[in-house]
Amino acid sequence: MASPTSRTEFKENCLRRLGKPVIEINVDDDQVEDRIDEALRYYWDYHFDGSSKTYYKYQITQQDKDNQYVTIPENIIGVVNIFDLGSALGTNNLFNIRYQIALNDLYTLTSVSMVPYYMAMQHIQFLEYLLVGKQPLRYNRNTNRLYIDMDWDRINTGDYLIVEAYEVVDPSTYTDAWSDRWLLRYAACLIKQQWGTNLKKFEGMKMPGGLVFNGQKIYDEATMERDVLEKEMIYSYSLPASDMIG
Asked: Which of 83, 85, 146, 207 is geometrically suited to a Cys-Cys bond with 211, CB 3.0 to 4.6 A?
């Protein structure tokens, strides 16, 4: 059968991996949906294909200035940086530093070295970093609020804020995510673990024909598989942590 391209096809693929329809999977439909949601959250948090870098544009309102924070959409799981506010290099008029250097020093872009221009821009950015500094950011994905510790009078109502962030890859929009091999295996494993949890209370109960429930074995197998899959995620599919110097 073709790779799943929807949540319904994804769910059926996971159940078939566990033996449906040959074997009855003793898991309620709501439990299956919960385990798929759990698998997706883990996928978004750790898989390098589970999220993507984006530049989110937001227009400042008076309420934002009063609150001194910006409300971020729920699909954004991390904020990395914002474009500088009031940067000396960000103005676009006659008095812009880039314009003045190009006007006075770069008569032609073919016969003049660009090294002094590049070094001058680096030096100006360095001075601005020392004298002005960067705006400290505070963001928590559970509150969806981006706090910018600055004087909010520096920015006017109607100005745009550009946020460098990471957003989740929504499978309902990008359907190729439903066919991810690791996600399929992990979701099936979580459903199997739920199946074992449901059957453990019937341990030792005999069915007609001499069959005996063994929910503990199903649960233990799923727990081992889950441990292997989560280690595989960390070591094979997660991006390495950024270097920190302190």
From this structure: 207
